[in-house]
């Protein structure tokens, strides 16, 4: 391999790591390990504490870069200022781990598309904002030298919605966490959901399914919905306030929780339920499987591609089928054990080491 200097633009408005940040944090060490002649310069914003903590890593230089935090200001900054900064670092290739438009950039660039939900579920972002972002995303994907899609589903969406040529696309699956030991004796009568509280996540369907089950109520099952607020928060709050106090007491919405708390919830929940109808990948499925939790997911978008036969798939927005699946896992120990084992086997298909190697190969295409 030829010596390569990669410039990574990690800048976004997230103070706490979310999807693209977690993706990059997992990918970084493997990008560096593929080739000892590769060096990386990573740009991050002052509020991104996870990246400021990346110190004393050989061949990685982190540069705090003042930028506007609000989306519009950051969009303008990327369109007008970023190229000059990138050129000053004399990078061979720029890696954009999210959908970022860099119109003045004269260096080859590789961009990662995690999803194209602005096209599939525009109501998630608001009509006007989604229309603007769809235009920007098309421009960003057209500007990039290569586009990495994190699933075959997202690659198909990139072709369909943004007219990305197939020969410009590369599918590189995300990796999953290492398996953790699960103590069956510590498992509680609880279902777990993890994700932003948005309408596309199917949370109302989940609540309807859970409350409708007398069997789950009689057995003392609870439901925990973990995640930051989103466009469904007010709807969910009204839905819960309308419940009978006994039913309301069985549902917990703790919001965003620390990683240690989330780890214990994964390890001690009877099952993980994710009825989202619009995902570009679905990393939370791998997180649940790594902790040994049986998984129920909507048979929609990328989720069947990630889950395979390692969980139960139910039709999207179908509370009756979701209720039946939850009851199966609540009362069928053999099924839970089987899905535990299949989940562990399925994890082998998703490795960050492999993702790092394949991403490095895409970046190296410009150094030959």
Characteristics of this structure?
368 residues; alpha/beta; seven-stranded parallel β-sheet; six-stranded parallel β-sheet; 17 helices; globular
Fold and architecture overview:
This protein is α/β, with parallel strands linked by helices and 368 residues long. The chain is 44% helix and 17% strand. The chain has helices at 19-34, 49-52, 71-80, 82-88, 117-120, 127-143, 152-162, 203-212, 214-218, 233-241, 245-248, 259-268, 283-290, 303-307, 319-331, 333-347, 352-364, and strands at 4-9, 38-44, 60-64, 93-96, 109-113, 146-149, 169-171, 188-194, 222-226, 251-255, 269-274, 295-298, 312-314. Strands 3-2-1-4-5-6-7 form a 7-stranded parallel beta sheet, sandwiched between helices. Helix 1 (19-34) packs across helix 17 and helix 8 (203-212) crosses helix 15. The longest helix has 17 residues, at 127-143. It is globular and about 65 Å long. The N and C termini lie close together (8 Å).
């Amino acid at each position: 391999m030829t010596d390569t200097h990669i410039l990574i633009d990690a800048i976004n408005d997230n103070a706490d790591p979310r999807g693209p940040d977690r993706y990059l944090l997992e990918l970084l060490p493997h990008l560096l390990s593929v080739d000892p002649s590769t060096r990386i310069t990573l740009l991050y914003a002052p509020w991104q504490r996870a990246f400021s903590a990346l110190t004393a890593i050989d061949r990685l230089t982190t540069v705090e870069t003042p930028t506007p935090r609000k989306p519009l200001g950051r969009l303008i900054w990327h369109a007008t200022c970023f190229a000059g900064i990138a050129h000053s670092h004399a990078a061979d290739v720029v890696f954009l781990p999210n959908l970022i438009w860099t119109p003045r950039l004269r260096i080859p660039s590789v961009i990662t598309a995690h999803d194209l939900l602005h096209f599939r579920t525009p109501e998630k972002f608001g009509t006007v904002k989604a229309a603007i972002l769809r235009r920007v995303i098309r421009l960003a994907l057209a500007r990039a030298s290569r586009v990495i899609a994190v699933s075959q589903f997202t690659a198909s969406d990139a072709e369909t919605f943004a007219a990305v040529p197939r020969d410009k696309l590369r599918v590189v699956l995300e990796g999953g966490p290492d398996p953790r030991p699960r103590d069956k004796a510590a498992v509680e009568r609880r279902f777990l959901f993890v994700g932003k509280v948005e309408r596309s996540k199917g949370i109302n369907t989940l609540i309807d399914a859970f409350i409708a089950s007398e069997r789950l109520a009689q057995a003392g099952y609870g439901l925990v919905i973990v995640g930051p607020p989103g466009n469904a928060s007010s709807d969910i709050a009204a839905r819960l306030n309308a419940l009978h106090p006994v039913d309301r007491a069985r549902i917990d919405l703790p919001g965003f929780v620390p990683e240690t708390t989330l780890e214990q919830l994964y390890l001690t929940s009877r099952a993980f339920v994710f009825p989202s109808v619009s995902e570009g990948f679905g990393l939370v499925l791998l997180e649940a499987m790594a902790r040994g939790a049986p998984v129920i997911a909507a048979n929609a978008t990328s989720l069947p591609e990630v889950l395979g036969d390692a969980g139960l798939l139910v039709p999207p927005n179908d509370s009756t089928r979701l209720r039946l699946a939850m009851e199966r896992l609540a009362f069928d120990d053999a099924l839970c054990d089987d899905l535990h084992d299949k989940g562990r086997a399925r994890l082998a298909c998703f490795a960050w080491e492999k993702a790092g190697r394949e991403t490095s190969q895409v970046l190296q295409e410009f150094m030959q």
